[in-house]
Each structure stands twice: as C-alpha cells, then as structure tokens.
Predict the structure.
Amino acid sequence: MALRPRTVKAGSLAAIAVPSVLGSTLVAPASAFAPVVQDIPGAATQAPKSLFTSTVQPTLSQVAVQIRQQAEQAKQTQQAPATTAVQPIQKTYTAQATQQTTPSATFQSAQAAQPSAQPTLAQVAQTPAATQAPAATQAPAATQSAATPAAQPAQTAQATQAASGVAATRTNQTFLSYTSPAGTTSQYHVYAEGVDFSKPVGVVFYFDGDYWRNDQSKVYDPSGELAQMAASAAAQNMLFVPVISPDANRYDAGVTWWEDMERNGEFFRSFASSFIAANGVDSSNVWTMGYSGGAEFITYELNTKPQTWRNGGGSIMIAGGGLDEGTPSDALKSQPMFWYANSNDGSGETYPQTWSARGAVEGGYNAYRNAGYTNASATVLNGSGHFDYNFSQILSNSLTKGKATAAPKVEQKTEQKKSEQKQQNTQRARTMSSATYQSYTSPAGTTSQYHVYANNLDYSKPVGVVFYFDGDYWQRDESKVYTPDEGMLAAMGKIANARNMVFVPVISPDTNASGDGITWWEDMNTNGEFFRSFAKSFVSENNLDASQVWTMGYSGGAE
C-alpha cells in the first residue's frame, strides 16, 4: 500500500470496464466481475490481461504485522525505508515551477484556528479524579510561499473565520490546520479557484496513500498533481480538499490512514462536518477519493460508519478499497462507488509485497455489491503497476458518471416526503395511557424500562414525543427516573403534554453500578442499539408523528 518514489507516465484510460449493471441479460459469474472489454478512444493498443484472479487477501491487521516483520528484517540488511532526517508533518512547502500542462494556481498562506482539545468520555472514564489533565499540544505553524504566475489576477478575498474552527475559504489555501474535539490535529489544503459560489457547491475530499517521507506523497506538493485534480473538481463546481493523515509514526508502515482508523475516522468526520458547514457546501454532493491506503480508509472506515457528515455524493477508490471485515452503511446503498485498478497492480507492486491493490479492489467491490450497493462499478485499467494512474482524468470521469447515475438529491425528494408526511399526519395516534416501569427488549437482547406520560392529549391532531435520558448515578435515589409519580419528571411530562407530545423517560440498560455508576455513555453501542430499536417501535406502534420526535438529556444523558 505504501507510496514509493515514482515516475508518472502519460497514462490513458484504456480500460477493461466492469460496470455495476450490464442489463437484464447479465448472468452472474462466480465472481461479481463480468468481463466486458471497452475501448476508449486515444488509448494505446494493448492486449487485455485477464480479469481479477481469485486471491485471498490479508486483513489490514495482518498487513500491519507483516509490515513490522519486514521492517525488522530490512533494518538488519540495511534495506529499511528511510526514516532518518524526516521532515516534520507540518513541513513548510515552497512551491516549485510546474509544467505548462499543470493548471495555474495561486496559493495563499493561512492558518486555521485550532479549538482547544477536550477529553473524550473514554479518557474521562480512564483518568482518576486526582490525575492532572495533560497540556494540549500545539502544532507548529506552517507558512506557504505563494506561487503566483504573472497572468494570474490578484486574489483579495480573505478567509473568514467560522465558529466551527474551520475557515470559510474562497481562494486556494495550503497547510491549514484543524483539531478535532478528541484533540487530534492535522492539516489540509483547499482548492477554490474556478468555483462559482453563487451556485450550489460540492466538495471532493482526497486521501493519499502511505509514505515515509514527505517527497513520497502528493499532499506535500500542492502545485503538482493535486492542482490537476482540483481543476477536474472545479469543472463540476466542486471544491477540492486533500487531507493529510493525522498519523505521526513514520516507522513500520509509515504515515497511513488505515493503521488507527478509529482515531482518523473521528478526526475526518469532525473536520468534514465543520468544513461543509463553514463553507456552505451542498451536503448532498460530498465525494471522497482515496488512493491505495487512502482508498482502504474509505471502504473500511468512512463508508461503514453513520453518514452524519453528508447526505449524498459518492466515493472513488484507486488501487485499493477492500473490505473483509465490517458492514457497509445502509445510508450509501444508492450512492455511486467507483473502483479502479491497473491490470498488473497485484502482489509485489507495493509494500508489503503480499498485498495486492487489484485484489483489494475485487474484494471491496464484491463486498459492497453483496451488501446491496446498486450503483457500484469497478474498472481495470491498462496502466503499469501501482504508480501509473491518471488521477485527474479518473476524477473527471467519475464525477461525470456519478452525476448521471446518482440517486435523486434530497431536495428532489421533498415533495414525496411531504406527501408521505401528510398521509402519516392524517392517521390518528393510538390512544395512550400514562404508565410507569414498562419493559422493552431490543432485537439484540438488551432490556430496560421506561415511563409514559400521556395526559390530556388531543388525538384529533398529530401527537409527538419527547424521550428523556437522565444523568449518571450509583443509587436509585440519585436519579429522577426512579421517582416517576412526583417531582421533576411529572412536571416535565405536563409541559410536553401541553404541547400535544408524549413524555417518555427511558432508564439506561446499564446494570453495573460500580466504577462510573449507571450511565448511558459507557457502552454506547449497546445502549444506542437498544434505544434506536425502542424508539422506532414506540413511535410506530403508537402512530406518533415521526417529524416531531425530540430527545432530551441531562449530564451523561446529554453526552
């Protein structure tokens, strides 16, 4: 997966194309790939090689073990990747002259403000009360020398600081910094030239492959290939935002997106949400693009987790993008997912040599298709190995194809949603009675209790609901949920009922009163599954207005 110093050849998109849908006559072979040879004009004539062969791909954890073993062996034979005299990840970049075929780009130096790092709940749970919080680490400031061609008009727009900690950007900016709520910091570039902000604006976030030295990665050469890719994005009125991995360990596998995916995923989702909000980006036109290890990050992490940061868009995976563990997100099944691999980009082309980019593409495509992704395709290109990809052309073709095949945008579904909501609102809610200590067991077998406050409701009108989660406690007399007939819960119930809403306090399924006590936040996967299942069942069975569902939490319940 790792990048090496490379020579980019004049690649073409002559391809053996493997579209996701070949028509009603398609007979599914043993592999999900149906070989269809497609000649693209201007391509070099080349005998097409066979499509993907059946391979057993090592998991990412196995790859990490192999990397460490190979690194140790390499050190003994003086063949280890160079890790000495490495530039810091916030290295100052000095723009170099580019060829005439490279799009002209003007960069401005800017440093985004970094919000203070707050401890996560997991860190709070593991830190004794008497332990002092560590001081927040400041990333060194980065500066950028402007590369401004004489014919380039002067840029006068200033980046406006947004409350989210991400700057609203209307010009090209490099090496901006962002720190997530968990305290993870890294940098990113913004390519905004050629984008018309009077129209809806999309965005392409880019993740590069693994590297040991800065000169092995495109993200440290913002006026090179990245500028060409940015031109492809701007042609579709989309910002182009390469993001640098927060990984600071340049040994073993080098700097990667996939070695600590939970941390990197938290960082990126937080950054993406902030960037989209700060720049007014159309959240239904948000694309991700990854190369090699960056493609693995998309398919293993981003597209298997809730899509809270976007409502639509697509994903482009080049020379990677497998999936042998985890479950694809249901939210993306109709969104475009496009894989690309060179025909001979197999085992031996990367580090470690047991990993095959082509095999990863095959495995990822099959996994997502089997999970019900209907707008997925994989294309085998006639390029040479792992370092011969025409990124800008792949991006341009993918965005064009995605526009033609994408599911309707959110706004196009508005009338249908209004109609469905109107029909739902004309159905009367089921008459309910107030009750305490009702039990519910989720499909996963998690059980807990809840109360219902349903007094003086007008069932001739839509009825909403407020679900309430109390704070942490060790003994029952420390929580409001165990005094349902008096005190604050009853008062809150009256307030909700006065607004024609049922009030439903839910007791946490947590049964361990030691340590941090009974909480909602210690096992959020279990508690989340329980509540989502309960809420869906409660709203459906009582025919409540699904557009009037509120949640209310106190202390740990708010978390």
